[in-house]
Design a protein that fits this description.
The protein has about 800 residues and is an alpha/beta fold. About 30% of the residues lie in helices and about 15% in strands. It has 25 helices and 27 strands. It has a six-stranded mixed beta sheet. Strands 1-3-4-6-9 form a five-stranded parallel beta sheet. Helix 3 crosses helix 12. The chain is globular. Bound molecules: beta-D-glucopyranose. Beta-D-glucopyranose (BGC) binds next to loops.
Length: about 800
């Protein structure tokens, strides 16, 4: 490997600055005559999305090279299978090598705080332990082939609404116990080459210049040794970012930020030594990836094999939610297949992770492939929610003389995407009406669901079976067939709770919010931690899923009755397959602190095992619990501590189906345990509260809450969004233009949902990106003038804007600050 110290010494200031940001959307800078290589990144996480043109900012979401589209993270999570996540990582890495990609941008481990987050399909779970285990396995899988990953989006980015500017207001304990552990586990177990900071501020400080996150926690506490890259367009203050530990800005800022960094060094705002730390990490990263290319050059991608793996993951990640015995279907049953989603299955979500699948098999494709006999009707128009009476009648007709109706419904493309959140938890109206109408026929009605997150299923008692395929990847049609006909036995379990109504979600009142802040008022009570503590009925609990066989649990043994918080506890138990076919069971181990000074959740997941069993077979399994399994994050001492006392160890088939229980006494020398009994008492009885009182959250947060008021004249700055500019006529005009023309930068013939994403993204784009991400089209002075104009200085503002555009004429961009690049 090159001597990095020597190379660093040989770099000019301009060259150093050039290394701190990309040169295109997907490439880092190279310094040719010093042999510093350029590195190529491409989106994941469930396949490679290498754009066909090296897009500059005028292009957005270009077509990409065909690759295997694996099931998305929500489906991978429902496998609860770290081995398969590892295998998927290996396969994606092989395709990355095949396509010349050095780093895959994934996985995403943000927590599913609310079912409505538009990107839930790209994230694993509402539970940080499960998310962290699967993420670490995936990263290890990719990196075992000498291809890098980018763990994202660091951190507390659980909604799309105003994602670039809204501050996630979260108390320290929730941050440590809910929003960070999946990152922490992945860093400690897998050291991803890169970590992508999120767009949003956390408690008022942008992730991209958040020293506490990027340096103090990530590097100093967790021992991270890779680089931090900005999410695309996330940089708020580049110079502060250098000091905070943000190494690479992506995509290119066309030299603007290089200049800012260089000026900061020249003016003494930062020292060259500060910059060198970042540059050294960038050099280390670039040369490491270069060495990897040498080492992995003989790796070949086998796209056929990967299609089969995608099928296996889809089978293992599908969750059977209901079955009165109709499934598995007999091969000779006369079937009507209804629903456009059977023909055009929803196999992935939308946005930066959208893969161009090399091969794609929907359910009806597979039926045709094996020459099955079936009737088919669309049932609804996938592009609109309303009922089409003709289609509805055709569907009913098609079902009339059949034994079984297989009805494919779910969230269509317009519902879930990066860039916007869902506005409700319901399925499209036409889908619900179809269920109602078909259920009146007294046929066996089997529902196959597609979608990337929890959905409301009001008709659940009127159908015979529900198989949730989630977003099943390119081979989902085949997987679905194999599950329905019993060629594969469903074994997936939910990695998220399905509430009955969205109003039951603890963040219902505190989701999206804005314009300034979104308050994570429910604190640690996310997902089942809330539902189980509040004893609230749910549609399907966390960890739930059915099989074609049954399992019995027995013989719970703990290695000790009493331990100290430094000891480990072995928990073992037996699982028996009590049914007639082989199957796999996912057993979950939860821990409950029986009595505590600090408020705690009813139970939380600390371990899980997935075990395959032949009919009648019994296996004994064991897991190890350690200090973290009993600890809470103690803000008094800024560390994980255990409060002495009894803890229940619960083994279950879901968070609501605990089948074995025992107790252990844990002692520790923890003295200081904060109590919020009087200052924030609602957290001790969370079920009694529809809304969390301001006072309680304020006391937990330890500071005043910020008033969310619409931006007015005087409030517009670089972090105001284009959508906020309605404060003066020119702002209104720009807002209108951004909305109108944003869809035009998408590739020709883009579907509606992609246009919607572009429009929503444009309106929530902060003004700072208007000059940093437009390839020099909009000079910074113009934006400065616009801000003045919007803030009530019309003449000065207009003058600056006109001056800015005039000065732009003849200016050279990029090249000035990209020597040798
Ligand atoms: C997304 C990232 C993605 C990046 C590059 C951003 O908008 O948030 O997840 O990796 O774009 O496409």
């Amino acid at each position: 490997m090159a001597n990095l110290e020597n190379i660093l010494q040989s770099l000019t200031l301009e060259e150093k600055c050039a290394l701190c940001s990309g040169v295109t959307n997907w490439r880092t800078a190279c310094i040719k005559d010093k042999n510093v290589p350029s590195i190529m990144v491409a989106d994941g996480p469930h396949g490679i999305r290498k754009e066909l043109v090296s897009a500059d900012v005028a292009n957005f979401m270009q077509d990409s090279m065909p690759s295997t589209c694996f099931p998305t993270a929500v489906t991978v999570a429902s496998t609860w299978d770290a081995d398969i996540a590892y295998k998927m990582g290996e396969a994606i890495a092989e395709e990355a090598v095949d396509q010349g990609v050095d780093v895959v941008l994934g996985p995403g481990v943000n927590i599913k705080r609310n079912p409505l987050c538009g990107r839930n399909f790209e994230y694993f779970s509402e539970d940080p332990y499960l998310a962290g285990e699967l993420s670490a396995a995936y990263v290890n899988g990719v990196q075992s082939k000498k291809v890098g990953t980018s763990l994202k989006h660091f951190a507390v980015n659980s909604q799309e609404h105003r994602r670039m500017t809204i501050s996630s207001e979260v108390d320290e304990r929730a941050l440590r116990e809910i929003y960070l552990p999946a990152f922490e586990n992945t860093v400690k177990k897998a050291q991803p080459y890169t970590i992508m900071c999120s767009y949003n501020p956390i408690n008022g400080v942008h992730a991209s210049d958040n020293k506490m996150l990027l340096n103090d926690i990530l590097r100093e506490e967790w021992g991270y040794n890779g680089i931090v890259v900005s999410d695309w367009g996330a940089v708020n203050d580049r110079v502060k970012g250098i000091l905070a530990g943000l190494d690479l800005e992506m995509p290119t800022s066309n030299g603007i930020r290089d200049k800012e960094i260089a000026e900061a060094v020249k003016s003494g705002k930062i020292t060259e030594a500060d910059l060198d730390k970042v540059v050294m990490r960038m050099l280390d990263f670039a040369f490491r990836c270069q060495k990897d290319r040498e080492e992995h050059k003989d790796i070949k991608a086998d796209y056929d094999k990967n299609f089969d793996l995608a099928c296996e993951i889809s089978e293992k990640g599908a969750v059977m939610l209901k079955n009165d015995g109709i499934l598995p279907l007999k091969k000779d049953a006369k079937i009507a297949v209804i629903g456009n989603l059977a023909k055009k299955m929803r196999y992935q979500g939308s946005g930066s992770s959208r893969i161009n699948p090399k091969k794609l098999t929907s359910f009806t494709d597979y039926l045709d492939e094996i020459k099955a006999d079936y009737s088919y009707a669309d049932g609804y128009d996938p592009d609109c929610d309303g009922i089409d009476k003709t289609m509805l009648a055709q569907a009913v007709n098609s079902a009339a003389d059949k034994d079984v109706v297989l009805l494919f419904i779910g969230l269509t493309d317009n519902y879930e995407s990066e860039g916007f959140d869902r506005s409700h938890m319901d399925l499209p109206m036409a889908h619900n009406v179809l269920v109602e109408e078909l259920s009146k026929l007294n046929k066996n009605l089997v529902i196959v669901l597609s979608g990337g997150s929890a959905m409301a299923l009001p008709w659940i008692n009127k159908v015979n079976a529900v198989l949730n395929m989630y977003l099943c990847g390119c081979a989902g049609g085949k997987a679905c067939y194999r599950l329905i006909y019993g060629e594969a036995n469903p074994c997936g379990k939910l990695a998220e709770t399905f509430p009955i109504s969205i109003k039951d979600n603890p963040a219902y009142l505190y989701f999206q919010m804005g314009p300034q802040t979104v308050e994570y008022r429910e604190s640690i009570f996310v997902g089942y931690r809330y539902f189980d503590s509040a004893k609230k009925q749910v549609r399907f609990p966390f960890g739930y899923g059915l099989s074609y066989t049954t399992f019995a649990y027995s013989d719970l043994k703990l290695s000790a009755e009493e331990i100290t918080d430094n000891d480990k506890l072995e928990v073992s138990f037996a699982i028996t397959n009590t049914g007639k076919v082989k199957g796999a069971e996912i057993a979950q181990v939860y821990v409950k602190d029986v009595e505590s000074t600090i408020f705690r959740e009813e139970k939380s997941l600390k371990a899980f095992v997935k075990v395959e069993l032949k009919a009648g077979e019994t296996k004994t399994v064991s897991v190890t619990l350690d200090k973290r399994s009993f600890a809470f994050y103690n803000t008094e001492v800024s560390d994980w501590t255990v409060e002495s006392g009894d803890f229940e160890i619960m083994v279950g088939a879901s968070s609501r189906d605990i089948v074995l229980e025992s107790k252990v006494k844990v002692t520790s020398d923890t003295k200081a345990v904060p109590s919020y009994m009087s200052s924030a008492s609602c957290y001790y009885n969370i079920g009694d509260y529809g809304d969390i009182p301001d006072k309680d959250f304020r006391n937990l947060l330890g500071r005043e809450l910020i008033d969310n008021v619409p931006l007015a004249k005087g409030d517009i700055d670089y972090n105001a969004c284009l959508g906020d500019l309605g404060v003066c006529w020119i702002g209104k005009l720009l807002k209108w233009a951004a909305y109108k023309f944003s869809a035009k930068i998408m590739p020709k013939d883009s579907p509606e949902f992609m246009k919607k994403m572009a429009q929503k993204s444009a309106l929530s784009m902060p003004l700072r990106n208007a000059f940093a991400m437009t390839n020099g089209l909009v000079p910074q002075r113009v934006v400065d003038g616009l801000i003045k104009r919007c803030n009530g200085k019309p003449f000065q503002g207009m003058g600056m804007m006109i001056g800015g555009f005039l000065a732009k004429k003849g200016t050279k961009k990029i090249e000035l600050y990209r020597p040798n690049v």
